Amino acid sequence: MDLRRFTVKAARKVTREEAIARFKAMGEGDNGTIMKTCEILGALMRGWTCDRRELARAFSMTVATADRYLRALAHLPGVVEVRSGRRRLVSFSYGLALRGAGR
After folding, report:
1. For the segment 8-54, what is each residue's pLDDT rounded down to a tens digit?
2. Predicted local distance difference test score (pLDDT) of residue 64
3. Long-range CB contact pairs, 47-52, < 8 A, 24+
4. What region does 47 belong to: left with phi over 0, alpha with psi -120 to 50, or beta?
5. Which residues contact 93 (CB under 8 A, 6 or more apart)?
6. Which of 70, 42, 45 is nearest to 55 (CA)?
7. DSSP designation for 13
């Protein structure tokens, strides 16, 4: 058995330019999680109220993925979840966002 392929290489220090290039690539190649999160939050801030199915349809993702986005966004100040029967609607409230920011 050849153990040379199992050796661990020492990690090299990443330069600032490489870090910026990696960060920019995150938002381009695979629909970037950060960019998609910003788009969803922007839509909510413009007054859109949605549930996970509407979000999945609007942003071309699965319902399970949309549910994960909504659960993560619910932790931000101003994002409001309202239960309507079994549906969970999500919207944005500027008043709650300002109160949550400590102002």
Report:
1. 455 556 677 776 676 666 555 555 787 888 888 888 899 989 899 99
2. 93
3. 47/91, 47/92, 48/91, 49/89, 49/90, 49/91, 50/89, 50/90, 50/91, 51/87, 51/88, 51/89, 51/90, 52/88
4. left
5. 78, 80
6. 70
7. P
Which pair of structure tokens corresponds to residue 59? 């942003």
Domain 15-100: assigned CATH number: 1.10.10.10
> CA-CA distance, 57 to 33, in Å (whole number)?
17
For the chain, domain boundaries:
15-100
Q: What is the pLDDT of residue 6?
A: 47
